[in-house]
Write a structure and sequence with these properties.
By secondary structure, the chain is an alpha/beta fold. The chain folds into two domains: 1-103 and 272-370, Isopropylmalate Dehydrogenase (3-Layer(aba) Sandwich); 109-261, Isopropylmalate Dehydrogenase. Helix content is 41%, strand content 20%. The chain is built from twelve helices and 14 strands. It has helices at residues 15-32, 46-52, 58-66, 89-99, 123-126, 167-183, 198-214, 225-234, 246-259, 304-316, 321-336, 354-369; strands spanning 3-11, 36-41, 69-74, 104-110, 130-136, 144-151, 157-162, 187-192, 219-224, 241-244, 269-271, 283-285, 339-340, 350-351. The strands form three sheets. Strands 2-1-3-12-11-4-5-10-8-9 form a ten-stranded mixed beta sheet, sandwiched between helices. The chain has a two-stranded antiparallel ribbon with strand order 6-7. The protein has a two-stranded parallel ribbon with strand order 13-14. The radius of gyration is 20 Å and the shape is globular. The mean pLDDT is 97. The protein binds 3-isopropylmalic acid and manganese (II) ion (MN). Manganese (II) ion is lined by residues 250, 254.
Length: 370
Amino acid sequence: MATHKLLLLPGDGIGPEVMAEVKRLIDWVNGQGIAKFETESGLVGGSSYDADKVSITDATMALAQASDAVIFGAVGGPKWADVPYEARPEAGLLRLRKDMALFANLRPAICYPALAESSSLKKDVVEGLDIMIVRELTGGVYFGEPKTITDLGNGQKRAIDTQVYDTYEIERISRVAFELARKRRNKMTSMEKHNVMKSGVLWKEVVTQVHAREYKDVQLEHQLADSGAMQLVRQPKQFDVIVTDNLFGDILSDIAAMLTGSLGMLPSASLGEVDQKTRKRKALYEPVHGSAPDIAGKGLANPVAMLTSFGMALRYSFDMGELADKLDQAIATVLAKGIRTGDIKSEGSTVVSTSQMGEAILKEVQALYA
Ligand code: IPM
Ligand code: MN
């Protein structure tokens, strides 16, 4: 049996608590001989800053590069509000994305039947929702240069961020999205603001060309990102795959998360290009929720997004769709039984802690293997 090398980076806030539930699952999977995962752990974000004065060390970066997949918790918190900009917790995550060339960020928003009532939107708007947001992750305004604040010397400062996209970046992310659409409901919506931004003009042009050249069988639609945001809360089920840039993707995926009932429900996969020789791709899996410092250390966090992020690793890095399906099924059963963390509680549900939720889910997975 192949050994899969995982680097676990729990990070800050609720990161370590939700990661413990993934660890519980991994230990069981190893114990059963279903797969062989070899895990190492490292520091990232504020916890790395506290230990080493950087948001991620070169040594941890090397471990990440050598791993088959990085499983990432969350970074950030008020404790590090005043650390130098270069060493802020988020910089560790951004370095991982950039240095590992993880350009494709997949954020599936699925509304479990039992949670249709937990969304802030009406039940019939979100019931059965299943959309995939494909966010470009290594370009755009997150990384564009110049990125500066200059003192103008007259009591004024000037801040510059640069939104920049090259053709190849738009081509490769749209291919990932078109491929996913083909395996789903065959519809793709591209979101940008070509009415205001040059990068939006090029984005729309390139997506249109890739479609005409390679993916004519997929239904393609363009929406302006602002109106797309509105449509996401008005009629989210019109969407199948949404492809968009780094910044719009950040914002639109937080909106999509709430459609599923809670930010604690949305996983993500960040993938690099498939290596032509090894057929493998670099990958990092992380929940979309942040470090939630307000509830950290209290056992209140919802571990589902962290667990389903590991589920995405099973699918996209290890070809273990069967275990991933069982994990999804186990989560659906636990939710249907009314076992909930506080963020997704509803009338008549049993509110449990992070570890009780993890235990309940593992128990259902075990039952599916019994
Ligand atoms: C996300 C997060 C990150 C981002 C932060 C932590 C840098 O919000 O993954 O959505 O803005 O990309
Ligand atoms: Mn975000």
